[in-house]
Amino acid sequence: MEVTARAPGKIILAGEHAVVHGYTAVASSIDLYTVFSIRLRSDDDTVKLKLNDIGLDFSWSVRRIKEVLSHLGSPFSSTPTSCSLETIKSLATLVDEQSFPETKIGLASGVYAFLWLYTSILGFKPATVTVSSELPVGAGLGSSAAYCVSLSAALLALSDSVKLDVSQKGWSMFNESEAELVNKWAFEGEKIIHGKPSGVDNSVSTFGNVIKFKSGVMTRVNSNMPLRMLITNTKVGRDTKALVANVSARKSRHPDAMCSVLNAIEAISDEWSTIIQSHAVDDLYLSANEEKLRELMEMNQGLLLSIGVSHASIENVLQTSMKYKLASKLTGAGGGGCVLTLLPTHISGEVIDKLVEELGSFGFQSFTAGIGGKGVQISFDHSS
Ligand SMILES: Nc1ncnc2c1ncn2[C@@H]1O[C@H](COP(=O)(O)OP(=O)(O)OP(=O)(O)O)[C@@H](O)[C@H]1O
Ligand SMILES: C[C@@](O)(CCO)CC(=O)[O-]
Ligand SMILES: [Mg+2]
């Protein structure tokens, strides 16, 4: 039997970075998924990992994994547990032995997260594991969270911690307490990749839809507004862990100024959630709300620039969309990656096409995605 789990990426509508420091963010899932498939093996004693998006394959014998992790006693745990620094060093040994290419070393933390979640949830069972994603990796659309959520979901589905009806056909959902467990394990994986994640990305990937998130607490937001965003990938590589660490360093250098900026960002997130929950009584009301969101995005972007997470490529997208009287802001950690441009309901397809073409002339790639769909899902295939 093969178990497959898929988890969506996300956009942060308001409040990235501020949320790491206990201020509110508003985020939504998007209909682009990361998919993990796991097939337990009985023919040999290896754990094989195929990372299709980054073109890397790994194979460890269960004996070797046991040997390297032996100082932990048994890593199995029915409750989500953090990976210690000492264990990360041991996991790095397992990865180094497979001669990880120097040019892709930034991606190694995802493999550590894999090994930690795998051995913690499933123990030392041989299997073939494959991951592929519709999300750009490391571009602000929550690829790390979708990776950790879909992996945790597939592993838990094979473990004794969760009792699912394996005879179900097609995609099915976890119940609330199972989804909570998936989310907690995924957060442990995110910690290995991000250093200090707020938990917003794994929560929105697990539960889907639109959420508000503050100090580790998620609130569901009932969005009543048709939201359309153009997502532009600047293709400038960046690393969430480094950007989050830079913001924290700036906060410790300028605590009062940073506190004011983060408070302002929180006010923007709160207003975002109020606006999208309100029911538009007519077109006039809808355009007035869209205009408010446009201004909130402009302000949020200005504040993100002030905390040091914008980038020349992001500013380029802002200037270009401004020519079409459209507002944009970075989404996720910034420093490159993806930028959101709000597409109001009245805008014509022709204008969008022209904007996309102009953005394309800089080497950027723009696309739209469905906003606010389901969270993590699981499916079982008995044919293999
Ligand atoms: N499909 C994938 N295959 C392998 N590794 C992945 C995949 N998706 C994510 N990762 C891991 O996640 C890391 C990227 O995470 P990072 O948090 O920097 O970016 P992001 O999650 O895309 O953006 P943000 O956190 O701003 O939303 C990669 O370096 C890799 O370790
Ligand atoms: C930059 C950040 O706020 C969002 C990344 O999508 C980090 C986090 O919340 O963990
Ligand atoms: Mg991430």
UniProtKB/TrEMBL annotation:
User: Example GO molecular function term?
Assistant: metal ion binding
One GO-annotated biological process of the protein? sterol biosynthetic process
Give the enzyme class: transferase
- GO CC terms for this protein? cytosol
Q: Keywords in alphabetical order, please.
A: ATP-binding, Cytoplasm, Kinase, Lipid biosynthesis, Lipid metabolism, Magnesium, Metal-binding, Nucleotide-binding, Steroid biosynthesis, Steroid metabolism, Sterol biosynthesis, Sterol metabolism, Transferase
InterPro entries named in the record:
GHMP_kinase_C_dom, GHMP_kinase_C_sf, GHMP_kinase_N_dom, GHMP_knse_ATP-bd_CS, Mev_gal_kin, Ribosomal_Su5_D2-typ_SF, Ribsml_uS5_D2-typ_fold_subgr
Family from the record = Belongs to the GHMP kinase family. Mevalonate kinase subfamily.
Put simply, this protein is called: Mevalonate kinase
Which species is this UniProt entry from?
A: Gossypium tomentosum
